[in-house]
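Sequence in, structure out.
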Amino acid sequence: MLLVRMLIWTPLNAAELQKAMHSGNVGPAALVPVQSGTVLLPPPGTRLGEAAYMTNRVRKIAGSGAALAVWNDEAALLYLFTTTIGRASMWGSREAVLRLSAQVKQSGPVGRLFDRSTAGLVNLREKEKWQLDAIDKLTALYPAASRKGPLERIRDFENGRHAIPDFFRTAGLPEVAQVAELTEQGRADGVLQPLEPPRAQLWPLALFLPLIVLTALATVLLHIPTVIYYLVGALLIVLLTGALVMLRRRLVRTKPINTVLPVIPVTQGAAPTD
């Protein structure tokens, strides 16, 4: 199985972003300050849905947008978020894109079957409107971006090798491209390995059905008024929701900021160091 890499880029500077992410309970992730903003490196094991959620939260914090890149040695996915829904660009063969998607989603058999059933979406990358929409998203996110170079790279969609560094470099973001290349080399792995994926524990959900069933049995056996059953059910929902929120907050907000959102030192303002 090929090693998957991820990064998120936003124009917001690292100092502001780190504080806002910590107070907003967004992360964990490593932050790399670059001249054009900040590159975020999600922890190993982060799922695509979790990374997309983090990117959307970063977009809201930044106020302008964010880009999520996911890639391996044979395929790449790039989502440009200027609104809640990100515009996707894909590189690599159709099969390579589907393999990368399944791997980063950590899909089971049902998920892989669903991906196969919607595989026709990969073909959208061939349509000119889809390609131009991606460039419009890019320039909305980064007004100084070149249009010609990124468009040419988007149109070279069968070539998945080095797609992410190539795209950012042609867009006029060479420092983001350099971070992507250094990430491929494992230069940030020492910082990323201790970080937990942005995945809260969900054990309260497993308690919901058994507790509801027990409450229903008690209501019947003890001849408790039905209204009490509904009140207890509502109380359980409130308590379990509170437990989920508390567990979610333990991911970032209740931990030291530099532990869950470490800033990786940079060389010449652009690249992570050892």
